[in-house]
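Q: Sequence in, structure out?
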Amino acid sequence: DETEFRNFIVWLEDQKIRHYKIEDRGNLRNIHSDDWPKSFEKYMKDVNCPFKIQERQETVDWLLGLAVRLEYGDNADKYKDSTPDGAKNTENTAKNAEPLINLDVNNPDFKAGVMALANLLQIQRHDDYLVMLKERLTQDAIAKASQSKEGLPVALEKHILGFDTGDAVINEAARILRLLHIEELRELQTKINEAIVAVQAIIADPKTDHRLGKVGR
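A: Exactly. Output:
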């Protein structure tokens, strides 16, 4: 809305930027004037904005950045020691950093989440969801996962997950699990192909005697 945009510019200048003296803000405050665009264009030049008046989004973003810098400069002592709300409580910070420490494996939501994830990733399910997790955490599984393998790096963002958990971190973990599962399937397929080739090598080009009903020498 043009009127709201003009009021917004006036508010920024009056309350935060304050580039003009109060008596010099008349033309900018006269938002209903046909000459307001010219006054605004002059204002943009005066505050050294690198964008044109037609570039509304860029202009607004730049002016907001200028206002924030000026606000901080006027109240540096107030803001310099500020910390995010989540970091004020050390205990909460530690808890947020290690979400698995206080994980309740008996929570029905956790069980449902494990089963849902297994279903989404097309991993073989087990009646006992803890057994399904333990199979992934055995010494053999850990040792296998720890073995370094040469290969090309994978750009996770290029692989479409096919579903959204609502959490970016979990989505990325799901992509990794799906790729690992696909790798295991490919290894299995390779072994199956090797077995087929071995069997074919044994039975290939046999000496057949139809009269004796025998296959072989």
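The chain has a mean pLDDT of 75.
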